[in-house]
Specification:
The complex is a heterodimer of chains A (about 350) and B (about 170). Chain A is mainly α. In chain A, strands 1-2 form a two-stranded antiparallel ribbon. In chain A, strand 1 and strand 2 form a beta hairpin. In chain A, helix 1 packs parallel to helix 12. The longest helix of chain A is centred in the N-terminal third of the chain and has 35 residues. Chain B folds into two domains: about 100 residues, Four Helix Bundle (Hemerythrin (Met), subunit A) (Up-down Bundle), CATH 1.20.120; about 45 residues. Chain B has six helices and no strands. The longest helix of chain B is centred in the middle third of the chain and has 26 residues. Classes of the chains: A mainly alpha (about 350), B mainly alpha (about 170). Chains A and B meet through helix 4, helix 5 and helix 6 of A and helix 2 and helix 3 of B.
Chain lengths: ~350, ~170
């Protein structure tokens, strides 16, 4: 069915599938690790005029492994009155939602897990599954701070899912498809006032949607300035308060892998995805260059996300809700209206 | 289509077990989570039927929004840890009888319509219709043949939304 003829081998269906499963695992872990080391450890430190981790490996590059080793050794504590089964399941639900997000992401002409006709629609649906994991974590911990954190997180994620979906609608209208590969192709084949050299990344026409999407992403990731669910000065660390060891690590990985997933979505929707200008979309070499191109774009979007994270102070809860319902959603709706009018007019 | 049948019965088993646990579980949060399992397995059945748009909608609307609102509401009001004995309604036997009657009527209607004959599968069972896009077909029919019902449902939902706000706000 699918041949990787650059290597000169025909792969059977199950071999292609196994490769894709491995690819998704890599796609989750690589951006998450890069985000933690490059942005959380190094960029944040430089912004605050300090060096960050320097001991483990050259420039502290092995610090990540040291941290993982530390978390794996820690005792796994479960509160006595907690709902044990749900307490154990919750971090896996959050992580599963992240993994499933990457299952619809295209990395090249044949490098994808599934090429669904409703790709972006399913991705937005799957991203909201993590809320269930967070709510369960808050409830099952048998701790009032955890419960408050879980409820804050749920309220926030519900509020910011709407502007995110509405921002994506503008892109979908312009591309004319829900398929992520189709959206990449639409940007690659587009032209700017007759100039078709670099295609037409939707960043140029959908810059309003890009801004709304990034703000909503920040809120969906519960990062500063939208980190009320884990506000350490008010409710310890929210739904993660009672978690330690491996399960805390899973939440931590989930947070940064989800940042990677949303960055990949933003790169695919607004920056042209894995496609390169002047290179045909069907070129077999793109199966190898495409993932690298997308990874570079993920890092660019990730830089923006973490720049905001390290710069702004925390919102208040009511400001956060008002910001979503009174500003972001109307802006996204107006963007849809203008896109529709222009789409029909041209 | 052996693999499809195997997965159909696997998912049907998950649906039946979880649906049974939704009504028998004596913790309201556990019941809501079993409902998540039911809805997710139904979404998987839609995928088996090559109705991926409906499956994605199921995930986005039911699991991502409605269940989250359920859990949100439960946790804001009453969400005891451990078992809660008030959950079983005193008239549960009557409800069970109603459910059995419903099952009988719907089962009879299905058998009466299709007579135990298997509907032939389309030649191409992949998740792509003949013209290449399922969701394009769905949206075409929604905005042409079913435009009026679609708009009526939209207005109905808007009315429900306004009504909910009117009921909730006393000022």
């Amino acid at each position: 069915m699918i041949s990787l003829s650059v290597l000169g081998v025909e792969l059977a269906y199950w071999q292609v599938t196994s490769l894709r499963v491995l690819g998704v695992l890599l796609a989750v872990v690589l951006p998450a690790g890069a985000f933690v080391y490059l942005f959380l450890f190094k960029m944040m430190s430089f912004m605050q005029s300090r060096l960050g981790p320097m001991e483990a490996g050259p420039f502290g590059s092995m610090q990540l492994l040291a941290e993982v080793g530390k978390f794996l050794q820690k005792e796994d504590i479960v509160p006595e009155r907690a709902d044990r089964r749900l307490f154990f399941i919750a971090p896996y639900i959050v992580l599963a939602s992240t993994f499933l997000l990457f299952s619809v992401m295209p990395f090249g002409p044949d490098v994808y897990f599934t090429n669904l006709d409703t790709g972006i629609f399913l991705a937005l649906g799957l991203s909201s599954v993590s809320v269930i994991g967070i709510l369960i974590a808050g409830w099952a911990s048998a701790n009032k701070y955890s419960l408050i954190g879980g409820i804050r997180a749920a309220g926030q994620l519900i509020a910011y899912e709407l502007p995110m979906v509405l921002a994506v609608v503008g892109v979908v209208i312009q591309a004319g498809t829900l398929n992520l590969q189709g959206i990449v192709a639409a940007q690659h084949q587009g032209e700017i006032f007759g100039f078709s050299g670099i295609g037409n990344p939707f960043l140029l026409t959908q810059f309003v949607a890009f801004g709304v999407f990034l703000v909503a992403t920040q809120a969906e990731l519960t990062q500063t300035p939208f980190d009320m669910p884990v506000a350490e000065s008010e409710i310890v660390t929210g739904y993660m308060t009672e978690y330690s060891g491996l399960r805390f690590l899973l939440f931590f990985i989930g947070e940064f892998a989800t940042a990677g997933a949303f960055a990949a979505l933003a790169a695919t929707l607004f920056l042209g995805g894995w496609a390169l200008p002047f290179v045909s979309l069907d070129d077999n070499a793109m199966n190898f260059i495409g993932p690298l191109v997308l990874f570079a774009k993920i890092l660019m979007v990730g830089f923006l996300i973490f720049w905001a994270r390290f710069t702004f102070p925390r919102f208040r809860e009511d400001q956060l809700q008002a910001f979503a319902w009174k500003y972001l959603i109307p802006i996204a709706l107006i963007n849809i209206l203008v896109t529709m009018i222009l789409k029909v007019a041209f | 289509m052996v693999a499809q049948n195997v997965f159909f019965y696997l998912l049907a088993g998950i649906i039946l077990f979880s649906a049974f646990r939704v009504v028998t579980s004596n913790n309201v949060v556990h019941a809501a989570l079993y409902l998540v399992a039911v809805l997710a397995a139904v979404a998987a059945e839609y995928v088996l039927l090559a109705a991926e748009f409906v499956a994605a909608t199921q995930v986005l609307v039911y699991i991502g929004a409605i269940i989250v609102l359920f859990l949100f509401g439960i946790m804001l009001t009453r969400a005891k840890l451990g078992s809660d004995q008030d959950l079983t309604h005193p008239h549960w036997a009557l409800s069970a009888a109603t459910a059995v009657v419903m099952f009988g009527v719907m089962g009879y209607a299905l058998v009466d319509q299709f007579h135990w004959t298997a509907t032939p599968l389309p030649a191409d069972t992949r998740l792509v219709s003949v013209d290449g896009s399922n969701s394009a077909t769905v949206s075409d029919s929604v905005f042409t043949a079913y435009l009026v019902p679609f708009e009526v449902v939209s207005v109905l939902l808007l009315a429900a939304l306004v009504g909910a706000i009117v009921l909730a706000r006393k000022d």
